[in-house]
Amino acid sequence: MHDDTYLIPDIVAESQAAIGAIYAEADRPEDINGLVLLRPLGLNVEQIGNSPRNRAKNLLGRAAATLFQSDQSIFHDRWNAYVANRLLKRLSCHTLTQLGIGLSEDMIPLLTKQAEARSEEGKKTALLIGGKDRMMKPDELLAAREKAGASALDLIMIEEASHRSLATRRGAKDLAFAVDYLAA
C-alpha cells in the first residue's frame, strides 16, 4: 500500500551551494524543512568587490590565503593535500567565471524574507560561520545580516573554524554542528 506522507527534507549547503539552496527554498518553500548555510557565498557581495571580475579576483586571493590556515593547510595532513589537489585540478577560468556570476547578486534580501516566513511556520534557517574564515569573513557576514535586519536568521558561530571543505576531517565536524542544530 502507498502512504501519501513523506518526510520534508532539511538542506545543508556549503559555500557556493548556498546560492542554489536559497533559490530552491524560494521556489518550493513547502518542500524544505530546515535550512543551514555553511560559510555561504553570496551574502557579503558588497565587501568582496564592485564588479564580477573584481569579486572573482578577490575570492581567488581569499581562497589562496585559506589553503594555508592551520586546519585547512595542505601541510596539516595528507587528506587535506589530496582534497587541495582535487580542487586545483578542477579549477579553471570557467569556474572563476561561475564564482563571479554567483557573487553578482546579493542574496541576503531574499534570504531574510525567506527566514522571516519560515520562522512564522516554525521552520529553522541558520548561517554557520567560522570565526577564523578568511574567505567568507565573519565580520562581513554579520554586517550583511545586521544591515538586512535578518533577526529571524539564526547564527551558529564556530570560533576556531576556518573556511574548510566538508571533504576535510574538520569540515565533517561542522556538518555535525549543522545536523545537531536541525535536530534540536
What would you report as the Rg, rounded to the nearest angstrom? 17 Å
Largest sheet: 4 strands, parallel
Regions with little confidence, pLDDT below 50 for 5+ residues = none
End-to-end Cα distance: 32 Å
Shape: globular
The quaternary state of the protein chains shown equals single chain
Question: Approximately what portion of the residues adopt beta-strand conformation?
Answer: 5-15%
- What share of the residues lie within helices? 40-55%
Average of pLDDT: 78
Question: Helix-strand pattern, N to C?
Answer: EHEHHHHHEHEH
How many DSSP E strands?
4
Q: How is the largest sheet built, in terms of strand order?
A: 1-2-3-4
Structural class: alpha/beta
So how many helices? 8
What does this structure look like?
The chain has 8 helices and 4 strands. With 184 residues, the protein is of the alpha/beta class. Strand 3, helix 7 and strand 4 form a beta-alpha-beta unit. The chain starts with 10 loop residues before the first strand and ends with a helix. The model has no long low-confidence stretch (mean pLDDT 78).
